Inverse folding.
């Protein structure tokens, strides 16, 4: 945690819970969530559907109010402000463009509601349409433009009033793959150009990794880990985080010695290796360790291997190949290697092979 | 192969035996009387059954009949006032039943709003007759307000249903988006909800207008002495001498209704 003070810029979410009373069963959508989102940051809430990420977004926007806890913007509590008084704008999942207004009128709406003078509105609308490259279609009806164009209009409309925070609720999920890639780059550019804090909600781990400054991984109403994409991917603190983002191997191990975020661990094969410890708290005894498939490689030289097993299956993926190795304790370990030329010849199914772990490849989990 | 072919052919009502005959009979039963009525409105003779030649005589006669004009004017005033009031109330009712979190008793509210659809008209008519009689005695007022009030009441469900359908079809995210873009609830309603709801309101209003225009039962029971509307005037005439003037008035009423219903369809299709 870099800060937690009340006067910090950005959004501070403090102990927020949200319970929905649906008839008999109460649903706890958010459970004591605390997180700080810095100014000018591209912050992503990542998690499967139903994890509470959209609820958190709606709480920040003011469409829902928290059951407990508080949300502060630039140090000031938001609780008493209705959505139309919060300097926060949203890009909705299905854009929610006003169908009875043109592209231009949609973008101008927020500025008009703020009572800006006509000339200023005109200028800002033009700037925004240029920013999202929609100047030519300014007079079009919003149902006469493509999905990608609607997306741009929704962005321009939300950015036009220059909010302190822009909330994006899975805005790319309705687009096809190619357009989605383009918009990912576009969004990142817009965030840099405008300097506005972006809070982006997605269930797509790749999207989260490529666009964000920091990512919060959520599950069942809780934030499990917050960190840079690299931290989240290479040093997942919990099994769910490791599982949700990319492919991963789990190894049972025991901590032999620890200190300064590093530990010596003994694998069930008997090999002792160095591993990174998750932030906060001491861990001793039995732990689970994760290793990404691309941080391991195969060898036929038993002396170099960290541990060994029987090569069970080879799956060719074009750019790389996955090797499934059955370990002595019965678990399956996946190794991913790039298909460069001049590999050691290991393509022998049922052969006894050794696995080499790269430096700093092992990460100890908290659970 | 024959079996396969039969399976592949989708069921079509058009291929059932007797389809054409039944269809023709239904169209005949529906439209033949109306066509006869319209044709005889142009009869130059005094009979509504013996054709004597073409003439605009009965239209002229109806136009020059002060009683007809008076009744028609009264009908239009009542229909206009009642449909305006009913549409306004129905819009509020529709907002109240769709833009709130579902609450206990919502079904009862639906039933209350749509009561005129369920209670037999003659019962409502008799009830209003007795109720208004009490008020008339108490206040001495015998004006058009009784009729307008009664018409408003039974027009509400007809205005309510298309408006509610429109509201339910509307994306709630649009109103959320308006609030997100600094629109107060009232401005969000004025700038987003109302314009999008407008086709539904127009459709409801037009429907209410037509329903009010051709009401007989309740009007007959509620009206004070001399307050004939066009339908009750026509009913009265039928009890005396029947001339093609009735045909002419009916034809005009028919034309107006067809025109209004066409407008209704134009509006309900717009913006979908």
């Amino acid at each position: 945690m870099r800060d937690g003070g009340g006067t910090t810029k950005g959004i501070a979410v403090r102990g927020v819970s949200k319970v929905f009373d649906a008839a008999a069963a109460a649903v706890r959508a958010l459970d004591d969530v605390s997180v700080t989102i810095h100014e000018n940051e591209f912050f992503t809430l990542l998690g499967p559907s139903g994890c509470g990420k959209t609820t958190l977004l709606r709480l920040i926007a003011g469409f829902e109010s928290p059951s407990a806890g508080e949300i502060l913007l630039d140090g000031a509590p938001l609780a008493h402000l209705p959505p139309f008084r919060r300097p926060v704008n949203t890009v909705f999942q299905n854009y929610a463009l006003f169908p009875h207004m043109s592209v231009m009128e949609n973008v101008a709406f927020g500025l008009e509601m703020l009572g800006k003078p006509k000339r200023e509105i005109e200028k800002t609308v033009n700037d925004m349409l240029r920013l999202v490259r929609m100047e030519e279609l300014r007079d079009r009806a919003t149902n006469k433009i493509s999905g990608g164009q609607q997306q741009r209009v929704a962005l321009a409309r939300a950015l036009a009033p220059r909010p302190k925070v822009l909330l994006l609720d899975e805005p790319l999920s309705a687009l096809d793959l190619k357009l989605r890639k383009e918009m990912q780059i576009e969004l990142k550019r817009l965030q840099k150009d405008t300097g506005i804090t972006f809070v982006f909600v997605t269930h797509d781990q790749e999207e989260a990794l490529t666009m964000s400054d920091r990512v919060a991984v959520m599950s069942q109403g809780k934030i499990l880990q917050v960190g840079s994409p690299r931290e989240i991917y290479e040093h997942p603190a919990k099994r769910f985080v490791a599982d949700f983002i990319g492919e991963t191997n789990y190894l049972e191990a025991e901590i032999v010695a620890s200190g300064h975020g590093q530990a010596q661990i003994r694998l069930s094969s008997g090999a002792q290796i160095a591993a990174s410890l998750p932030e906060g708290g001491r861990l001793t005894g039995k732990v689970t360790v994760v290793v990404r498939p691309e941080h391991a490689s195969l060898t036929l030289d038993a002396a170099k291997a960290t541990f060994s097993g029987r090569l069970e299956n080879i799956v060719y993926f074009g750019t790389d190949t996955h090797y499934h190795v059955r370990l002595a304790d019965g678990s399956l370990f996946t190794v991913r290697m790039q298909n460069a030329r001049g590999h050691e010849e290991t393509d022998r199914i049922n052969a006894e092979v050794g696995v080499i772990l790269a430096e700093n490849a092992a990460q100890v989990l908290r659970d | 192969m024959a079996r396969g072919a039969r399976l592949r052919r989708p069921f079509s009502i058009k291929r059932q035996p007797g389809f054409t005959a039944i269809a023709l009979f239904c169209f005949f039963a529906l439209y033949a009387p109306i066509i006869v009525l319209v044709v005889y409105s142009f009869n130059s003779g005094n009979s509504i059954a013996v054709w004597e030649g073409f003439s605009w005589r009965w239209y002229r006669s109806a136009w020059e009949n002060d009683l007809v004009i008076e009744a028609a004017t009264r009908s239009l005033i009542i229909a206009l006032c009642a449909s305006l009031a009913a549409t306004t109330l129905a819009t509020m009712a529709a907002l109240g039943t769709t833009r709130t979190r579902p609450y206990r008793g919502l079904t009862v509210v639906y039933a209350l709003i749509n009561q005129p659809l369920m209670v037999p008209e003659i019962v409502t008519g008799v009830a209003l007759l007795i109720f208004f009689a009490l008020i008339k005695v108490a206040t001495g007022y015998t004006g058009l307000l009784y009729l307008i009030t009664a018409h408003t009441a039974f027009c509400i469900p007809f205005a309510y249903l298309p408006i509610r359908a429109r509201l339910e079809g509307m994306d709630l995210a649009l109103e959320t988006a308006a609030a997100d873009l600094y629109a107060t609830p009232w401005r969000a309603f004025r700038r987003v909800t109302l314009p999008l709801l407008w086709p539904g309101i127009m459709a409801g209003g037009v429907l209410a207008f037509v329903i009010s225009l051709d009401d007989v039962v309740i009007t007959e029971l509620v009206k004070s002495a001399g307050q004939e509307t066009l339908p009750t005037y026509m009913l009265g005439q039928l009890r005396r001498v029947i001339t093609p003037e009735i045909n002419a008035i009916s034809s005009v009423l028919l034309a107006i209704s067809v025109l209004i219903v066409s407008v209704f369809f134009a509006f309900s299709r717009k913006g979908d």
Remarks:
- Residues 1-6 of chain A have pLDDT under 50 and may be disordered.
- The radius of gyration of chain A is 24 Å.
- The CA atoms of residues 79 and 296 of chain A lie 49 Å apart.
